Amino acid sequence: MSDYLLLRHRQHPEIDTLEGYLKLGGFKTFKKIVDGKDPAGVIEEVKKSGLRGRGGAGFPTGVKWSFLPNDITPHYVVANADESEPGTFKDREIMEKNPFQFLEGLMIACFAVKASLGYVYLRGEFWQVAGNLEECINKLRKQGILGKDLFGSSFALDLHTHLGAGAYICGEESALLESMEGRLGQPRLRPPYPAVFGLFGKPTVINNVETLTNVPLIVEKGAEWYRKYGTEKSPGIKIFSLSGNVNKPGNYELPLGTTFQELIFTHGGGLKPGRKAKAILPGGASSIVIKATPKALDTPMDYESVAGLGSALGSASVIVVDDSVSMLWVTKKIIHFFQHESCGKCTPCREGTYWMDQILHHTKNNKLSIQDLELIRSVAEQIRNKCLCPLGEFSIMALVSSMEQFPEDFRS
Amino acid sequence: MTDFLKMHHSEIKRILAKYPNGQERSAVMPLLHLVQAEKGYISRHDIDAIAGVLNITSTEVVSIIGFYTLYHSEKEKACYRIQVCTDLACALQGADQFLAELCKKVGIMPGETTPDGLITIEEVTCLAGCDRAPLFQVQGDGTIRYHENQTPENAAGLINQLRINARKGGE
After folding, report:
1. Which pick of A86, A175, A272, A309 has the fewest CB atoms within 10 Å?
2. Would you state the pLDDT for residue B2?
3. Domain locations in chain A?
């Protein structure tokens, strides 16, 4: 890939300073659209670009923005920086190293949906990142890029950070809103959806950090330009967070549609000598596990192709598992995570993750008896489709798919 | 109002100003962070004071502290918390072994505190640093800092340094 679009600090390390970002043309796009006074036009351009949510759900961003009703005000935009799922570490790099491009994306989103207040909700562990972002926001205020009557228009905008305190569930958008309102981070019953009844009961857009970081370039260079990257149905570029049994774990910015093979072997340096890829979790710990067959490795990583393998690209947090690892152990780790992070609101998730964790922690010789296999399968099936948010569902994905594809790792 | 809240009057005002009128309750998390940054834990006294400022009940504040893992009540206070991520991606890079070796060096089990009460080592869930495992965060001096690409040796060295700092601070 020639030029970085999101991880631009890798070519321009000075981009983390306001002066550096301004020199690279930063905030010109924001000023241009504020001068242009055409929020609907901005939404239209983002819609045309085909940009889809990079946090995991893959929902078309422009479409999401167009849902906010004009007769209920004020509107809010919240950037979801609660990145907490095992395997994901892309938003942190963006916010640490290229913070202004992310903030400009958030500001453009605010203008497009006519919000005068935007928030960044960060997981509590990102205490240092939040401090840096606060400083960035202060600099923008001082420079008159945030504030009242921006660039002589009637548009006013301010941004704030809000720091969580250690709860994976707050990455789920309705739990995030509850947390921001000073309550336990537990999901809301929907409908109403946040587009109508969101933060403080007002229409709200919630976008992932990486999604928003795409926005300034899309609005500057146009939807046509953006569509040159990626595939027709999954346009654009994506940060693939590669981790697990690979030689060079890290973030790799590549067009959607790059194959697993290229990511893992060309960019990620392959596996340790003598080891073979056994399984891939394409979207973090909540993934349906993919068996690493030659056909799977040759599959392009775009939303449709990964769905074709029976899994989902999600946040593109690719965890590679090699042939020395038991999938029962992988499952144990994953279920323990979700058990710890279940918020306790819905009984199937709260009780189900606890009992699955218990069963897996009492395995003998790292295998399950036939009775325990039946029991854990039955618990998993009783969680499916029975909770307010996807966490319960996430907890059973690796378990059920691994039991199907790697039965020898489970049965004694 | 406690002395603490009086002392941080302007900071509290700044925090409250982040949220629209009538939505002061949103400030509960930042105020808890503010208190904890100073003391390393949140006392009963502070809970009542925060509840008073935000016009919510103390029970509601306590429930927030209980729900979110980064807040520590008085009875959980420990000087420094070394929080090692042992989730899947880190474990594939040797985090479990790292934790075991570090604990052995320090002479405690995961979840335990050293006899001098200065260091607690515990397992935590994902810290979003899976490419730089083994890693841990340190809480205890009002900050939360990451230490990445660690070995048991350099982590033990850091813990020694923290001990020295804590003893100096206690003098």
Report:
1. A272
2. 63
3. 8-226, 240-322, 327-409
Mean pLDDT of B70-98: 92
Nearest to A89 among B26, B64, B129 (CB): B129
Residues in B closer than 8 angstroms to A244, CB to CB, are 88-89, 92-93, 130
Average pLDDT over residues B33-40: 90
pLDDT reading at B142 higher than 90: no
Average pLDDT rounded to a whole number, residues A253-260: 98
Write down the ipTM of this complex: 0.94
CA distance A97 to chain B (A): 15
Q: Is the four-CA dihedral B12, B13, B16, B17 of positive or negative sign?
A: negative
- Residues B130, A241: C-beta atoms closer than 8 Å: yes
Q: Which architecture does CATH list for A240-322? A: Roll (3.10)
Cα–Cα distances (Å) from A244 to A51, A250, A279, A327, in that order, read 28, 10, 11, 13
CA-based nearest residue to A108, from A6, A196, A207, A219: A219
Return d(Cα B154, Cα B22) in angstroms, integer. 49
Contacts of A325 in chain B (CB under 8 A): 92
Q: CB-CB: which of A88, A249, A281 is closest to B128?
A: A88
> Is the domain defined by A327-409 classed in CATH 1.20.1440.230?
yes
- On the question of pLDDT at B120 being above 70, the answer is yes
Smallest CA–CA distance from B138 into chain A, residue: A125
Check A184 against B67: CB less than 8 A apart. yes
* CATH no., domain A8-226: 3.40.50.11540
CA-wise closest residue to A176 among B26, B132, B73, B169:
B26
Of A85, A182, A333, the CB nearest to B26: A182
For chain B, say whether A55 makes contact (Cβ under 8 Å): no
- From the list B67, B89, B127, the residue facing A244 with the nearest CB is B89
- Per DSSP, which regions of A173-299 are E strands? 204-208, 237-244, 250-255, 277-281, 290-291
Give the pLDDT confidence score for residue A45 in this predicted structure: 98
- Compute the C-alpha angle A63/A64/A67, nearest 5°: 90
First to last CA, chain A: 47
Question: Quick check: A242 and A283 in contact, CB under 8 A?
Answer: no
Mark yes or no for CB contact B125/A337 under 8 Å: yes
Pick the range with the lowest mean pLDDT from A39-43, A362-366, B134-138: A362-366
Going along chain B from its start, the domains and CATH numbers come out as 3-74 (1.10.10.1590), 78-170 (3.40.30.10)
* CA of residue A343 relative to chain centroid, distance: 19
CB distance B69–A251 less than 8 Å?
Answer: no
Say whether pLDDT at A395 is over 70. Answer: yes
CA distance A270 to A268: 6
In the predicted model, is pLDDT for residue A226 greater than 60?
Answer: yes
